C-alpha cells in the first residue's frame, strides 16, 4: 500500500539541528529518512524518538563528501522508500550535514579550504542533483546556511563563503525546479547551542555572553528554535515562500 504521509530526507539528522528538525517534523506527522556519517547508534536513537512520536523513520549511512557513493545511496534510498512506504519518491529535502572550522587568513591550508567547500558546497550541489529526480513534484528543499553569511566572525571566511554559495544556489535551484512546483529556500541559523564547532557556543560562557549582548532576544539559539523554522517551511502554509534566505538568529547584530 502506498503511504499518504509526507516523507523528509535529512542529511546529518543524527544530531544537532538535523535531529531537532527531524523531531519537529515527526511531531507534525512527517516521516523521516535521516542520514549519518559514522555514528550509527546516535542515528538509531533519533529513529526511535521519531517512532515514539508516531511517525515512521529509517537511518541510512552517507558521507556527503564522497560523491562517488551518491548513485548507490540513491538506489538504497529508493529501495527503502518502496519497501517501507510503497513509493519511489519523497517530498522534502533538508541539506543539513556540515562541519565547522576556523580558517584565519595567513594560516589556512588547501586541505582546510577543501574540507569546508567539499561538504558545504560540492556535496550539497551534487547530492541535490542526484536526488532531484526522486523528489516529488510540489516538494520542498531547504538548505542550511549561517548568520555568518551576513555578519562577520574573524577566522570564518571560508565557512561563510561556502554558505554564501549555498544561498546563491538556492535562488538558482528555485528557478530551475519551479516548473515542477518545487520550492527551494535557505535557513540561516545564528549562534546555536549545539556541539557544532566543538560546542563552543554551548559550553563557553564568555563567548556565549558576547553573543547574547548583541542579540535582540537576549539569548543564543536552541536546536529546537531552528528545527521549528525548518519544519515550518515544509508546512502547507509556506508553499508560496520561495528562493528566500530566512535568518533564524533571534535578531543578531542588528
How many H/I helices? 8
Percent helix range: 40-55%
pLDDT averaged over residues:
95
Q: What global shape is seen?
A: globular
> What portion of residues belong to β-strands?
15-25%
Count structural domains: 1
Distance between the first and last residues' Cα: 51 Å
Element-level helix/strand string: EHEHEHEHEHEHHHE
Kindly identify the CATH topology. Rossmann fold
Describe the model.
This protein is of the alpha/beta class. A 7-stranded parallel β-sheet has the order 3-2-1-4-5-6-7, sandwiched between helices. Helix 1 (16-27) packs parallel to helix 2. The mean pLDDT is 95. It has 8 helices and 7 strands, in the order βαβαβαβαβαβαααβ. It has one domain: NAD(P)-binding Rossmann-like Domain (Rossmann fold, 3-Layer(aba) Sandwich), CATH 3.40.50.720. The protein has helices spanning 16-27, 40-52, 70-85, 110-131, 157-177, 200-203, 205-212, 223-233, and strands at residues 7-10, 31-36, 57-61, 90-95, 135-144, 183-189, 245-248.
Labels describing this entry:
254 residues; alpha/beta; Rossmann fold; seven-stranded parallel sheet; 8 helices; globular
Amino acid at each position: 500500500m502506498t503511504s499518504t504521509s509526507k516523507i523528509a530526507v535529512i542529511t546529518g539528522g543524527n544530531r544537532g539541528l538535523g535531529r531537532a528538525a527531524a523531531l519537529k517534523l515527526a511531531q507534525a506527522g512527517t516521516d523521516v529518512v535521516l542520514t549519518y556519517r559514522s555514528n550509527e547508534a546516535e542515528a538509531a536513537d533519533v529513529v526511535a524518538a521519531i517512532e515514539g512520536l508516531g511517525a515512521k523513520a529509517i537511518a541510512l549511512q552517507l558521507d556527503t563528501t564522497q560523491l562517488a557513493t551518491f548513485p548507490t545511496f540513491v538506489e538504497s534510498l529508493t529501495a527503502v522508500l518502496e519497501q517501507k512506504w510503497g513509493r519511489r519518491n519523497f517530498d522534502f529535502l533538508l541539506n543539513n550535514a556540515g562541519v565547522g572550522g576556523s580558517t584565519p587568513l595567513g594560516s589556512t591550508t588547501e586541505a582546510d579550504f577543501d574540507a569546508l567547500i567539499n561538504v558545504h558546497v560540492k556535496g550539497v550541489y551534487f547530492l541535490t542533483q542526484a536526488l532531484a529526480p526522486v523528489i516529488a513534484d510540489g516538494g520542498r528543499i531547504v538548505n542550511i546556511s549561517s548568520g555568518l553569511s551576513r555578519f562577520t566572525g574573524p577566522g570564518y571566511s571560508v565557512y561563510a563563503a561556502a554558505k554564501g554559495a549555498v544561498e546563491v544556489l538556492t535562488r538558482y535551484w528555485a528557478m530551475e525546479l519551479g516548473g515542477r512546483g518545487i520550492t527551494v529556500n535557505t535557513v540561516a541559523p545564528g549562534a546555536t547551542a549545539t556541539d557544532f564547532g566543538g560546542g563552543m557556543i554551548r559550553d563557553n560562557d564568555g563567548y556565549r555572553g558576547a553573543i547574547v549582548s548583541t542579540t535582540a532576544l537576549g539569548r543564543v539559539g536552541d536546536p529546537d528554535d531552528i528545527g521549528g523554522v525548518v519544519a515550518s517551511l515544509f508546512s502547507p502554509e509556506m508553499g508560496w515562500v520561495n528562493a528566500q534566505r530566512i535568518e533564524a538568529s533571534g535578531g543578531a547584530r542588528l
